[in-house]
Amino acid sequence: MTFLNKTIAIVGLGYVGLPLAVEFGKIRPTIGFDINESRITELRQCLDKTRECSTEELKSSSYLRFSANHQDLLEAQIFIVTVPTPVDQANRPDMIPLIKASQMVGKVLKAGDIIIYESTVYPGATDEICVPILEEFSGMKFNVDFFCGYSPERINPGDKEHRLPTIKKVTSGSTPDVAEAVDQLYKEIITAGTHKASSIRVAEAAKVIENTQRDLNIALMNELSLIFNKLGIDTLEVLHAAGTKWNFLPFRPGLVGGHCIGVDPYYLTHKAQEVGYHPEVILAGRRINDSMASHVADETVKLMLRKNLPVLGSKVLVLGLTFKENCPDVRNTKVVDIVKALRGYNTQVDVYDPWIDVAEAQHEYGLTCLTEAPAHGQYAAIVLAVGHHQFLAMGEQGIKAFGQAGAVVYDVKSILPLGAADGRL
Fold this sequence. Notes:
This protein is an alpha/beta fold. The protein has 13 helices and 13 strands. It has helices at residues 17-24, 37-44, 55-60, 96-108, 125-138, 176-187, 200-231, 235-242, 264-274, 281-306, 335-343, 358-365, 389-400; strands at residues 8-11, 30-33, 64-67, 78-81, 114-117, 147-150, 169-171, 194-196, 315-319, 348-352, 379-384, 403-411, 423-424.
């Protein structure tokens, strides 16, 4: 099986799908599809609000065109599905976007077509959920009339060093021939090379444990931070000392949000429980990481009380809302939980983040954020929640200038010099 001269349709143009569409669009006919018509309009103007792809990159992709019309998908023979796979309020996998995408693709499938999934799922999801939908809506038979592949996304939002072509790609297919064809397809754009897994399930499992491993390592650092805080020891100093050993892993404490690390473990634990195993270590790590936002708020209030600063009705500034630095992505950001916890103490909380779309923050979380940097000297406490380069450029004095005399500064990311903040993780 070969994919020479075949048209690709990328279904879902978010942080994962758009870079993929841009790279394939440089070398072969590519349809970038999204149901969000305003997103398509922006991309046709070579504007990417996620800031993952520059105007120049979009213009350089000469074989790429954008569409919100599902009929245009009939032109494609290869479909790469890159829709989000979040969790619901109870931390259960929300497969609705994946199901709807599979239904839509199923309606336009033709004999010989292949569907490659990149969305994070639990092992077995492609076979158990997606394939039956594709068969139902296409009226065709899997591995006879159409085929599937799975190649988990490894996009790191906001990272300008590790880009799609320079990150090794795991590939797989529903038959040996399809697996080889999928592997060769990705080799067209991935300069770092590929790793062909023996099955789709292995590739699915590999993806879901990548971020589970990171989640657990960060949970360990967070628990150590909680212990060292009670012992009066600076966590970062301890980590710097321990890091002098060659095999000490350089993880640090922090908030765990975003669309991957704080979400993917729940896909694995869901499947584990379905087959009769109750995961203990993974869920313990999740509980620790989910508790850190409340810890930050509690510590900030304690520091205010120690400085004899009033808490009720006081003004608190939270700097940063996104789930990570130098990125506009607010999905599953735990900074929102800091804001909620602080407001639970009846403080007046202002949020300022130069990277976000304030309308999106209002829509997603009901937060009315500042549209420009606040005036100096008006806050009793400042929580430096995200390490954007704009905040780094302000330095210690610039950050403290937002506060009243003697205001509390809590440095979640430990980006200020030791001793510059009243508290940090």
